[in-house]
Amino acid sequence: MVPANDAETLILDLVRPVEDIETVTVEDSLGRVLGRAISSQLDFPHWDNSAMDGYAVRYGDVATVPAQLTVVEEIPAGQVPQSTLRSGEAARIFTGGLLPAGADTIVIQEKTQRDGEQVTVLASPAEQAFVRKQGSFYQAGAELLGPGIRIGASEIAVLAAAQCVPVPVYRRPRVAILSTGDELVDIKQSLGPGQIVDSNRYALAALIAQLGAMPVPLGIVPDQKEATRQAIADALTQADMVISSGGVSVGDYDYVDQILAELGATIHIRSVAVKPGKPLTVATFDHSEGDHSEGKLYFGLPGNPVSSLVSFWRFVQPALRKLSGLNTGWSPTFVWAITDSDLKAGGKRETYLWGQLVSADDGYRFTLAAGGHSSGNLVNLSRTNGLAQVPLGETMIQAGSLIRVLMLDRSI
Ligand SMILES: Nc1nc2c(c(=O)[nH]1)N[C@H]1C(S)=C(S)[C@@H](COP(=O)(O)OP(=O)(O)OC[C@H]3O[C@@H](n4cnc5c(N)ncnc54)[C@H](O)[C@@H]3O)O[C@H]1N2
Ligand code: MOO
Ligand SMILES: [Mg+2]
User: Fold this and answer.
1) CB–CB of 305/376 below 8 Å?
2) Which residues, including other chains, have CB under 8 Å from residue 397's CB and lie 6 or more apart?
3) Whose CA is nearest to atom 46 of ligand 1?
4) How far apart (Å, rounded) are the C-alpha atoms in residues 283 and 268?
5) Are the beta carbons of 301 and 245 closer than 8 angstroms?
6) Per-residue pLDDT at 294
7) Ligand 1: centre distance to CA 247 (Å)
8) How many other C-beta atoms lie within 10 A of the C-beta of residue 291?
9) Nearest bound ligand to the CA of residue 221
10) 3-state helix, strand, coil in the chain (%, to 5)
11) CA–CA distance from 171 to each of 56, 96, 212, 381 (Å)?
C-alpha cells in the first residue's frame, strides 16, 4: 500500500498535460485554462483620468486654501477636454473623465463650494490626489495573464478590457468512464435480484465536468476478460485519460489489472494506504503499440461508490487538473478545522470521514455526517462538503481537536 502523499506525487509525475490550443469567445472562456500568455497593446489606465467626481486643478493653485478658481470646462466620462488648464482655473470633472492638459490633481466635490463660474477649494488635497495615471496599473506589451491559469470572472474582465478576442485555451481533456460489474444496470432499467444502478458513472462524470474536462461515459462492462480488454482498448482510442470503477480488488472477477498488464500497460500503483479507497490501480501506456494509448494515464478506481469518489477527490482530481494544463494548484485544498465529533479510524490507512465543514468566527468547524461511514453508503455522503483526515497510525481524534479537512468543491 503506497502512502497517500507518495501516491499523489507519483501520479502527478506521470501526467502529460494537453498541449493543443483552441480558441473560444470571451464569454465561453469561463472555467477554461488559458493556453498562451496574454498581453495588451494598451496601457491601463489608457490615459490619465479622474477617480472621483470633483474638479481637476493645478496642485500649485490649491496648496494653500481656501483657493478660488474659475471653472472653464466640464468633462464627463467619455469626452475629450477642449482646454489646457492655466493657473487659477479648474475643470468640473466626473469619475472616469479624462484629465485636461495642465491639471495634475483632483479635488473631490465634497471639499469645494460652487458659486456660478467660481469654485472655492476648502481643503488642500495631496499632490496628484485621485488621478489614475496612464499606465500606472499595467504598461502596454507586458504580460497581463500567463498560460496555465483557470479563467474566472476577474480574468474575463481583464481579457475583455484588453480586447483579447478570441481567447486561446487548452482543449478540454476527454476522460473515458468505464463501469465494470455484472451486477450493474442502467439508470432506467428495473432492478432484478442482486442488481444495482451504475451510479458511479454519473458521479464520476459530474466530477470530471466540474473540473472543466469532458466526460466520455462508455457504459457498463461485464466482468469478463474479453469484454474488459475490448472496453479498455476502445476507451484509449477515445480519451486522454481513462477511469474505470470496480474490478480492482482481489476477487476472482476483478480483471482490470490483469487486462491492463496484457495490454502492455505499466502498473505504477495497485493499492494505497487510504480508507476508503484502498484498491487503486494507476497505470500508463507508455510502452504499448498503437498510437492511441501513448502516455495515457489509467485509473482503476474501487467500485464501492464512496471509495470511488474519495479516490477521485484525492488522486484523480490533481491529475486531471494537471492534464488540463493548469500550472499550479493541482492538489486538493486542505483546511484546518475543529471537529465537533470524535473521529475513529483503524490506524492502518489514512482515513477520510465525510461531513459538513462550516466557517465559524474562529475558523472552520467539522461535523461528521450521521449514519454509517461505510464505503457503500452513498446516501449520507450527499450534502457533505469535507473529508476529515485521520492520519496513518491514529485511531482516535477527540471532539474539540484541530484536524485537516479536504474541501470538496460544491461550487456547482
Ligand atoms: N478479500 C478482500 N476483499 C476485498 C478487499 C480486500 O482487501 N480483500 N478490499 C475491499 C475494498 S476495501 C474495496 S474498496 C472493494 C473494491 O472492490 P473492486 O474495486 O474490485 O469493486 P467491485 O468488487 O467490482 O465492486 C465493489 C462494490 O461496489 C459496487 N459497485 C461497483 N461498481 C459500481 C457502480 N458503477 N455503481 C455503483 N456501485 C458499484 C459493487 O456492486 C460492489 O458492491 O473490494 C473489497 N473487497
Ligand atoms: O478501500 Mo475500501 O474503499 O475501504 O471499501
Ligand atoms: Mg471486487
Assistant:
1) yes
2) 339, 342, 343, 390, 403
3) 249
4) 5
5) yes
6) 75
7) 7
8) 7
9) 1
10) 20, 35, 45
11) 49, 38, 10, 32
- Reference 63, options 110, 131, 129, 115; nearest CA is 129
112 closest CA partner among 94, 131, 125? 125
- How is residue 109 written as a grid cell? 466635490
* Ligand 1 surroundings by CB, under 6 angstroms: 179-181, 183-184, 196, 198-201, 245-251, 254, 276, 278-279, 302-305, 307, 375-376
Q: Tens digit of pLDDT for each residue in 37-87? A: 999 999 999 999 999 999 999 999 999 999 999 999 999 999 999 999 999
Q: By three-state DSSP, how is residue 296 classified?
A: coil
Side chain identity, residue 85: L
For residue 409, what are the CA distances in angstroms to 321, 357, 386? 13, 11, 9
Q: Which of 201, 304, 306, 311 has the most ligand 1 atoms within 8 A of CB, as the residue to mutate?
A: 304
Interface predicted TM-score (ipTM) = 0.98
Q: How many C-beta neighbours within 10 Å does residue 175 have?
A: 29
